[in-house]
Amino acid sequence: MPQRFVPPTEMLPVEEALARILDLCEGLPPERQALEEAHGQILAEDVQAPFDIPPLDNTAMDGYAVRAADTAGASEAEVARLSVVGELAAGYLFEGIVGAGEAVRIMTGAPIPEGADSIVPFEESDEEGLRAPGQTHEAIRSVGVMKEAKPGANIRRRGEDVRAGETILQKGTLLRGAQIAVLASMGTSAVTVIRRPRVAVLSTGDELLQPGQPPAPGKIYDSNAPGLAALVEEYGGIALRLGIAKDTVDALTAKIQEALSADLVVTSAGVSRGDFDVVKEVLAREGTIDFWTVRMKPGKPLAFGTFAAPDGRRVPHIGLPGNPVSSLLAFELFGRPVIHKMLGRTPKARPLLQAVADEAIVNTDGRRVYARATVRMGEDSRWHARLTGPQGSGVLTSMARANGLAICPEDRSQIDPGEDTTVIMLDWDQPLD
Ligand code: AMP
Ligand code: MG
After folding, report:
1. What distance in Å separates the CA atoms of residue 332 and residue 405, rounded to the nearest whole number?
2. 136 alpha carbon, distance to own chain's centre
3. Which of 13, 21, 7 is nearest to 367 (CA)?
4. Is the pLDDT at 1 greater than 60, yes or no?
5. What pLDDT does 6 receive?
6. Contacts for 163 with CB less than 8 Å, ≥ 6 apart
7. What's the rounded mean pLDDT across residues 14-25?
């Protein structure tokens, strides 16, 4: 006879639950990663520039490379006329020297020809006026400079961005587009970064069907695993989609074994307080696990523990509630920081803002309420939070329509309409209107 599950009595504050979870999770080791795959990963070493950037003095404008001294006193009325001795596009070197009275037609990014010390933009030359209709610039043999050129004007100096040997990105830097661009500008094609966590995602329950299967009486589609796997990837991990385990010891045990190659195991359902559940029995047998009630709504039941992997690792396991909203919300609050910690990031809270509650946010039992809300800037230039409809923990659309979580604290029975509420902003890109 399996032991009957004894429900815990204490209610853990959200912060306490998170602290306990983070305590048992560690940053992952570094890996060599192709630059193009490294977006969202953390640099595991300082990166030095192998050469000056830009590597040569080059022009910041399309125009003419000249000797500034040749343009002394030039004006629109009295142009300094120079003979055009060549043309230079970006990517090529000028083979020759710009002598006195000479100019080279030059395009942005092209290295400054020897002898020249200033760039005259086209706008400060009479090039346009010289051209007969239909004539190309190749026919231009000389150009008038209409304004005195200053030495060094419109020249980007070698090394003005980065000097050879300088540390340009520090260990611990999060790689986004701009950082990847800097690495690419140095010719880098691979970097040493903290490995991404592989997160096994498993749904449990006899009632579940995979999306794509034909509907059947009494059954529902598994929404947790697809949603959670997407969140894993949004948070920077790699999702291992393990599908659905039936509520039998054998089925669940087999799936858990499969999950042990991962860095983190996420299951949903079967962790509710109260009645006996086969999920609890298997989880307890395959590793160490605590079943908590967390002072939050939705999402009160939560399990956390570790499995022993065959290779000796302790693999952390988050057992999420089955109710779809609870499951996604608990993963946002507890799974996101874990993935970030494993990725080598400092787990940080989402940005918070104060918004006017356009509706009451009701708290019936002393838990912290995370109401799903649409947050918009109002005509009064203040943020406003409007609930996304019925707030039951099974009402998935309440989550899908929300861009923020409006909080009613544990010690308040209600946030009144018109009162300020703290909002956790989940998504700044939505709503789109
Ligand atoms: P449980 O935690 O097993 O008591 O499940 C609570 C509720 O969540 C029940 O209504 C389940 O049918 C539902 N549920 C459990 N797992 C899933 C899932 N993967 N997708 C959608 N609903 C689920
Ligand atoms: Mg169940």
Report:
1. 11
2. 48
3. 13
4. no
5. 47
6. 49, 52
7. 97
So what's the pLDDT on residue 265?
98
User: Is 50 exceeded by the pLDDT of residue 229?
Assistant: yes
Q: Is the pLDDT of residue 68 over 70?
A: yes
* 248/72 Cα distance (integer angstroms): 91
Q: For residues 148, 150, 154 and 157, what is the CA-based torsion angle, rounded to 10 degrees?
A: 160
Instruction: Tell me how far the alpha carbon of residue 250 lies from the centroid of ligand 1, in angstroms.
Output: 20
Ligand nearest to the CA of 247: 2
- pLDDT digit string (tens) for 349-392? 999 999 999 999 999 999 999 999 999 999 999 999 999 999 99
Pocket test for ligand 1, best of 201, 219, 220, 291 (most atoms within 8 A of CB): 220
**How many angstroms separate the CA atoms of 385 and 397, rounded?**
16
Pocket of ligand 1 (CB under 6 A): 203, 205, 207-208, 220, 222-225, 268-270, 272, 321-324
Three-class SS of the chain: CCCCCCCCCCEECHHHHHHHHHHCCCCCCEEEEEHHHCCCCEECCCEECCCCECCCCEECCCEEEECHHHHCCCCCCCCEEEEEEEEECCCCCCCCECCCCEEEEECCCCECCECCCEEEEHHHECHHHHCCCCCCHHHCCEEEECCCCCCCCCEECCCCCECCCCEEECCCCECCHHHHHHHHHCCCCEEEEECCCEEEEEEECCCEECECECCCCCCEECCHHHHHHHHHHHHCCEEEEEEEECCCHHHHHHHHHHHCCCCEEEEECCCCCCCCCHHHHHHHHHEEEEEEEECEECCCEEEEEEEECCCCCEEEEEEECCCHHHHHHHHHHHHHHHHHHHCCCCCCCCCEEEEEECCCEECCCCCEEEEEEEEEECCCCCEEEEECCCCCCCCHHHHHCCCEEEEECCCCCEECCCCEEEEEECCCCCCCC
Alpha carbons 259 and 287: distance in angstroms, whole number: 13
Q: What is the dihedral of CA 362, 363, 364, 369, to 10 degrees?
A: 120
pLDDT for 431: 83
Q: What is the mean pLDDT of residues 407-425?
A: 97
